[in-house]
Specification:
The chain has helices spanning 2-18, 39-56, 87-100, 113-127, 132-147, and strands spanning 61-69, 72-79, 106-110. By secondary structure, the chain is of the alpha+beta class. The protein has one domain: ANL, C-terminal domain (GMP Synthetase, Chain A, domain 3).
């Protein structure tokens, strides 16, 4: 009986040792898969996100996306159900944005779903690590559309 107990105990200990970490094995560094965004791009993304968060807090707006480029902010908004964009709302957004971010000189606002998607796509690409330099053409096209 003692012998069987010892064998079972020995097998249990050996199986537990196989499940432990080994100090001489290579470890996988999960940080290698992270996308690096340079400081300037990160700052612009943070400013864009802050503006979007500010705009979404306004009554009647369900969603907002923003891209900050030079001293301009391009903002696309989705209105809540039964809500409509008014000049008063746009003026409020412009005032709030300029108050929040004094580096912004011009604010352009659109309710066009296509422009919303385009800005959202650019932001997604930037978050994936693409530089602003690679997005300049898209941002300029968005700027041309939103300024009309």
């Amino acid at each position: 009986m003692k012998r069987i107990l010892m064998v079972v105990l020995l097998i249990s200990i050996l199986s537990l040792m196989a499940c432990s970490n080994s100090y001489n094995m290579d470890t996988v560094d999960g940080k290698k898969d992270l996308v690096e965004v340079n400081i300037q791009d990160r700052e612009l993304l943070t400013r864009s996100e802050d503006i979007s968060d500010l705009v979404v807090e306004l009554y009647g707006i369900d969603d907002a996306t923003t891209i900050v480029f030079n001293q301009e902010a391009y903002i696309a908004i989705k209105m809540g159900y039964g809500q409509q964009s008014t000049e008063y709302l746009k003026d409020t957004i412009i005032h709030q944005v300029k108050e929040k971010d004094p580096l912004i000189e011009e604010v352009y606002i659109s309710t066009d779903p296509k422009i919303f998607k385009e800005i959202d796509d650019v932001i997604f690409n930037l978050l994936q690590g693409q530089s602003y330099d690679r997005q300049v053409k898209k941002i300029n096209k968005i700027g041309e559309k939103i300024k009309k």
